[in-house]
Each structure stands twice: as C-alpha cells, then as structure tokens.
Write a structure and sequence with these properties.
Radius of gyration: 15 Å
Strand order of the largest sheet: 5-4-3-6-7-1-2-8-9
Order of helices and strands: EEHEEEEEHEE
Helix content: 10-25%
Number of helices: 2
Largest sheet: 9 strands, mixed
Shape: globular
Distance between the termini: 29 Å
Amino acid sequence: MKKTFEKVYQLKLSVKGITPEIWRRIQVPEDYTFLDLHKAIQTSMNWENYYLHEFEMLNQKTGKPEIITRADNHEYLDQEPPVPEEKARISDYFTLENKDALYTYNFGDNWQVEVLLEKVLPRKKRDKISHLHRRKESSRSGRHRRDIGL
C-alpha cells in the first residue's frame, strides 16, 4: 500500500552567523522523518552530505529539548541517547506552537541552520513526495530568486 500524506509543511531554513543572510524556503510532506528532512536540507543548500549532523528540537510531550540524529553520530555519556532520525517524524515535533529547530552540520565548522515552520498547507493533488522539497525560494545579498526543480 502506497503511503499518503494530507499536509505539506513549509519551512524556512536560515543559516546562522552569515552576512548577507542565506536562506531557503522548502515544502515537505508531513510524513517526512528527520532523516528525510536532513536530505532535503542538503539538497536545497547544495551541500554534499560529507559531515555529521543533528537536529535539536523541543519535545512538546516532555518539555525538554531532544537531539535527533543517527544513533552512531555521538557518544552520549551523561546525556539521554539521541532520538533516531530515521524513526522520528517531523509531524510529531513541528506544530504551529512548536515551530523551530536547530540543524547543526559539520561539527568542526559548526554550521547551524534555523529550521522554522512557517505554514501547514493542504496537499494539492499534483504534489508528489519526491519533488516537493525541491520547491524553494532563496535570498542572497538581498536579491530574491525563485528556483523550481533543482
């Protein structure tokens, strides 16, 4: 049976500590895992997935921040083990009340991307999972560019 989704999450990705601001706006299906989101971020930023990464986001059920990543990314001595990114669904974390996460990529250079849920949209009939995250808007040096289909 084919998986379906009813909602699309519009996310704004903003690289922290960079001037001029570098950002992307992507749309992803609600049933994406954080691993899927990681891949969408890599594609939209034109990065090549060379380095380790993690998400940090508040778990609304516990009220505590959680690290979401590959379980083998880190050794957690005095901390809770990370949440496996291939199992954690973005819809279990992102809500209109809990709308931002921190994505860290390349721990040596500590690239940080703020992931902000802007809107939850209804799925359109033409939306396909494999092409949704490729819709993006971006900004460099104050100029706006619309880019459909990488």
